[in-house]
Amino acid sequence: MENSKCFTVPKKVYLADTDATGIGYYARHLEWLEMARIEFITRIYKPLSRMIAEDRISFMPIRVEIDYKAPPLFEDELTIYLTIKNLDKLKMVLSYQVTKMVNEKVIPVSEAEITMLCVDLEKGSKPCRIPEALTNIFQEWLSGNHNM
């Protein structure tokens, strides 16, 4: 992700994020990635609740791939990087990297790709085109022309 335009979100690992061994529970990674996605859409477009109410669309995951690299531990300070890897009329592929600092060195914790399908909430969550205004905002952000 070094050469990509990235949105970043910090996340501290709390006790509730860990399993009995003090290691970040594997499923929490998906929650952290979802948190980053929601913050990203909120920052560049509008809060997710407004997007749902006003645009009557949402995004649902149709494919998730995650690789675990190093365990997040209780009280680790993580950074979640998100970028749009691919964008088409119906879906987007979001690429993520979660890192932590250890002895002043950046350590990859996990890497993931999630394909999100745009759905029309007024038609029973059937696939639909991503609204042109939102597509334009995504493209502006990727090109660096969007003020955040």
Task: Please give the structural blueprint.
Layout (H helix, E strand, L loop, with lengths): L6 E6 L15 H17 L3 H8 L1 E12 L8 E11 L3 E12 L2 E16 L5 E2 L4 H12 L5
Antiparallel strand pairs: 1-3, 2-5, 3-4, 4-5, 5-6
What do you see in this structure?
The chain is of the alpha+beta class. The protein has a single domain, classed as Thiol Ester Dehydrase, Chain A, CATH 3.10.129. Helix content is 25%, strand content 40%. The protein has 3 helices and 6 strands. Strands 1, 2, 3, 4, 5 and 6 form a 6-stranded antiparallel β-sheet that branches. It is globular, with a radius of gyration of 16 Å. 23% of the residues are buried.
Cα(first) to Cα(last) distance is: 19 Å
Domain unit count: 1
Q: SS-based structural class?
A: alpha+beta
Number of alpha- plus pi-helical segments: 3
CATH architecture term: Roll
Question: Helix amount, in percent?
Answer: 25-40%
Q: Which regions have little confidence, pLDDT < 50, spanning 5+ residues?
A: none
Q: H/E order of the elements?
A: EHHEEEEEH
Number of strands: 6
CATH superfamily: Hotdog Thioesterase
What is the CATH topology classification name? Answer: Thiol Ester Dehydrase, Chain A
The first-level CATH class name: Alpha Beta
Largest sheet composition: 6 strands, antiparallel
Radius of gyration: 16 Å
> Would you tell me the overall average pLDDT?
94
Shape: globular
Strand content: 35-45%
Features:
Thiol Ester Dehydrase, Chain A, 148 residues, alpha+beta, 3 helices, 40% strand, 25% helix, single chain
